[in-house]
Amino acid sequence: MIGLYAGLMPAFTAVCVAALVLGKDFDLLGKKFNHGPWVLVFCWLAISLLIALIKRPVTAWRAGLYSSACVLFIGGVAGILSSAPHSEIFLLSLCLLAISLIATAMMIGEDKVKRPKDKPVAAFTSVVDVVPTDDISSPAKSYVESILSAATFNAKRWLYYFLFGWAALVFVESFRFAHIIAVDPHRGVGMFGVLIAILLLVPAASIVTWWPRAASVLYAVALGIFVWLYTRADLAQLIVAVVISSILVVTTWFLAKSATENIALAGSAAATAATEATEADT
Amino acid sequence: MNQRQLSILYSLHSWAGVVTGLLLFIICFSGAVVVFKNEIDLWANPSLKDMPRVAQPIGVDAVIADAKRKYPLHTIENIVVPNEIYPNYFVFLKEGKNERIKYAARADTGELTQPVESQLGQYIRVLHVFLFFGPRWIVGFLGVAMLVLIGTGIFIHTKIVKELYTQRWRRSFRLVASDLHKVAGIWGLGFHILIAFTGAWIGLAPVFTRAYDFAMAPPATEVAMKKDKAFKVDKADKALLPMLAVDPLLTKARTDLAGFDITSMSVQHAGKANAILRINGNLDDNLASTAHIHYSMVDGKIIKKHDPRVEGFWSQANSLMEPLHFGDFGGIGLKILYFFLGMTPAILSLSGTLLWLDRRKKMQRESASLVGIPASDVPATSLGAARV
Q1: What pLDDT score was predicted for residue B217?
Q2: Which of A182, A256, B32, B42 is 20 to 30 A removed from B254 (C-alpha atoms)?
Q3: Which stretches of chain B score pLDDT less than 70?
């Protein structure tokens, strides 16, 4: 991850400088439209990989910043050498940027870091991690109850995964309708599908852990739009969407009670994490 | 706001940030650079330095005539007129199905010189607007994600005034990154909302428009028939008709649309009965960017005229989105400001992701210590704190 972030700027500046130096020999967007983008992607991944090989994170960051500064400086000089328009202003600007990157690279470093105090911290809770945990609050349970509790736990976990999977599926199929088939009624349905996936299904899947009934309402809105779309375009996929949306409306609505009870525990852990992030730092 | 709501918003902020962080970093970084698109395009083409700048450029018809003479098999797709940055015309010629070549043409004679060396500015713009490969609305949805991040971020950072001035250097990386995240987020808040909103609007407008058109259109079979009929008329009409000259139509456009400052034009269906000259431009003393007028190239009649000044609220709002997003209406000073402010969301996505990674690794270290795994076996944190 660090490599991808730290590698973007040197890759980007390297491609820009290559475009200036090579001119027509480096066709960015002209005859072969897909050529230029792949060069940047390849450069980015290659530099990211090299940076990722550096084990110390600070050194990795420094490598990214120094290499960007170096390429920026080369770009400025290359502009002067090729007599490019506004080359003097670009040289000055790029050198200033390069100096600021070098300064940043010099400011970070292990000598500036104080070792953080070790103290117990509550487990971090992400959207997927915060799943109902029935058995935490229960005092003593029988073997059968434990089995049932574990089964419920797993079922709910898989439900949360399914919700995101469902949103992704709707998105992909809508994209296919909108841009690959690209003829009405598929295109129109696809455009609606994309909007439903991103603006209704993803938010619903994100908040279902805490606000299942709000998520249920979002699924109900999606259901309504799918039904309306089915009246406009007789597509088999819309029947599937209507059926699954109906199930999700009901499931998430009745999930509300148990989820609310269980989230209280997980919520307290997340609250500790949030508090620590927002206040303990200060 | 109680602890539970705070924790939920914190989780949503983290979740949305981690999922979209890298893409937002690319979009914001390229967006900050693309503010200088025209300047970069000029810089990347040393041959344009020799182009003369003239007070009164020659008419577009001279450029078209030279293009037809030199490249008779190509189709003229678009012409960009000289402006305060470029001293020359740009002509986009299409050869075959996908080959689109950009030529420079002298403003004094209209002569096409050669294909430009590089389209670096446009390349960066394509990265920012389309992420190279995708449709524009993917970036639009990232704008929505940015709005969600801004909204949740405002609520979880309740001590806004205090955090406005809190940046502690020479402390732990986590603290420096955390302070930087908050300071950059709060100081750039207004700009971030502006950029995210206008970006989301520009990116999602085509999706909403097409969805709306589909909702309002007659049943699918009628649409298909109409489309098919139009296609047949176009194909059947093979005889080339004489076309009107472009320069008189440009003069007429300046009269038909008061204060119209022409920036580019394109011709559709040249030589056919439905040939159209599409003229785009800006309006004097107005930010609106969507003004355009279309003429029939057979009889010179107005086919479509769009003057945002006299349109409704939504049309006026739409016409303001691009200038507000790209900051190209206030000269170089505004562009520099947009560049630096545009870098702050990139810093936010970077620092936010690093904080999350650092926190995650820290949790892993602490969990490992509980079960007796040596600390040296746990990977270093993204901010480097584990190894020092």
Answers
A1: 77
A2: B42
A3: 1, 97-98, 160-172, 219-239, 370-388
Structure tokens at B266: 């394109």
Beta-carbon neighbour count of residue A236 at 10 Å?
8
Q: What is the pLDDT of residues B316-375, one digit of tens each?
A: 888 889 889 988 888 888 999 999 999 999 888 888 888 888 888 778 777 777 666 555
Contact A8, B127 (CB under 8 A): no
Are B235 and B45 spatial neighbours (Cβ–Cβ below 8 Å)?
no
Higher-pLDDT residue of A50, B235: A50
CA B331 from chain centre, in angstroms, equals 18
CA dist A257 and B377 (Å) reads 42
Q: Is A267 on the interface with B (CB under 8 A)?
A: yes
- Contact predicate B18/B356, CB 8 Å: yes
pLDDT at position B199, please?
93
User: What CA–CA distance (Å, rounded) separates A131 from B242?
Assistant: 71
Q: Is B14 on the interface with A (CB under 8 A)?
A: yes
**pLDDT at residue A264 in the model:** 44
B137 touching A (Cβ < 8 Å) = yes
The 10s digit of each residue's pLDDT in B298-313 is 888 888 888 888 888 8
Q: How confident is the model over A188-196, as a mean pLDDT?
A: 89
Q: Please state, in angstroms and rounded to a whole number, the distance separating the CA atoms of residues A48 and A2.
A: 8
Q: With b meaning 16 or more CB within 10 Å and e meaning fewer, what string describes B275-293?
A: bbbbbbbbbeebbbbbbbb
150-189 of A, contacting B, C-beta below 8 A: 178-179, 183-185, 187-189
Please answer yes or no on whether B385 and A115 come within 8 Å at the CB atom.
yes
Closest-CA distance, B190 to chain A, in angstroms, reads 21
Residue A25 sits at the chain B interface (C-beta within 8 Å): no
- d(C-alpha B245, C-alpha B59), whole Å: 10
**Residues of chain A positioned with their CB less than 8 A from the CB of B98:** 33
Residue A206: partners with Cβ closer than 8 Å, 6 or more residues away = A127, B12, B15, B16
Which value does ipTM take for this structure? 0.77
**Helix B313-326 × helix B189-216 angle, to 10°:** 140
pLDDT on residue B100: 79
CA angle centred on B289, ends B284 and B293, rounded to 5°: 85
Task: Tell me how far apart the alpha carbons of residues B312 and B334 are, in angstroms, rounded to a whole number.
Answer: 28
Residue of B nearest to A23 (CA): B117
- Do you know the residue count of chain B? 388
Q: Does A54 touch chain B (CB under 8 A)?
A: no
Distance from CA of B377 to the nearest CA of A (A): 13
B207–A contact, CB cutoff 8 A: yes
